[in-house]
Amino acid sequence: MTGAMLAGALVGLGLYALARAVFPPRPGLAARLASFDAARRRDEDARNRRTSPALERVGGIRAKVGRELVKFCETRGWQLRSIRADLAITDRSLEAFLATKFLLPAAAVICIPIVVAYFALLGVGDSLQVPAWICLIFAALFFFFPDMQLRQEAAARRQDFRHVVGAFLDLVSMNLAGGRGVPEALMTAANIGEGWAMLRIRDALANARITGQTPWQALGGLGDDLDIGELRDLSGALALVADDGAQVRKSLSARAASMRSRELSELEGKAGERSQSMLVAQLFLCAGFLVFLAYPAMIRVMVS
């Protein structure tokens, strides 16, 4: 009964996909507006590829599948803002991410006949339910695995970026104390560091000079692209007190001090969690040692 229901569901899904392919729906207003936004976003991605040499390159079947999936998402008006921000900070392309999310579950589904043949060789049974469900479960896991990996990597990179922002604020405040203006102090401070985070800040400030934006607008746009709240706050603070150098220097120094104190508290919290985990591991080790000592006496009492 279950096999017939599964076969019927697959046939119905195939007929639905065929009908949608033969008679595609007309794009609505939201889809057309999304296509304009997608064209602008493609220009920005092309510019990021020129300025960020570490961005992941995609080739072969992944590139074709990724481009088709990106077009599908754009025609549906799906923004994927959080995913795009995570991909931007990890220097990965949306095409590669979507292709991975599609190809991994597809490989798990395609492997259903292989798993069925393997179960038949083992003599476990002739039913298709167990291997089909195993492959479907693995397909679901493979579908969500790229999201979890991307989220963890993006969180680590954002933590590193926040640390760089704190050092950048200190450098800007020192340049302001030396008599430079706000734009010159920002660019001079960005030219000192050589890490990937400082390179992104430097590129954003250089592009702002070319496009005619203010440096704080460029920093705010970078904060929106990478989902870094500290850069957005810095942009708002500089926009308010950009004309008063003393106020800017005091504000930046206070922000750098608050960021350092917050990072220190986070590090202390992580150290406390690790010490607690080590304590739990030691307790389990002691419990196992006590069981090892008490086991012979318990066996002797029970036998006698």
Automatic annotation (TrEMBL):
The keyword DNA-binding does not apply. Residues 168-293 form the Type II secretion system protein GspF domain. The chain crosses the membrane at residues 6-23, 102-124, 130-148, 279-299. PANTHER family: INTEGRAL MEMBRANE PROTEIN-RELATED (PTHR35007), PILUS ASSEMBLY PROTEIN (PTHR35007:SF1). This is Type II secretion system F family protein. It is found in: Cell membrane. Pfam families: T2SSF. It comes from the Bacteria. It is a multi-pass membrane protein. Keywords: Cell membrane, Membrane, Transmembrane, Transmembrane helix. InterPro entries: T2SS_GspF_dom. The keyword Glycoprotein does not apply. One of its GO terms (cellular component) is plasma membrane. It comes from Actinomadura barringtoniae. Its main location: membrane.
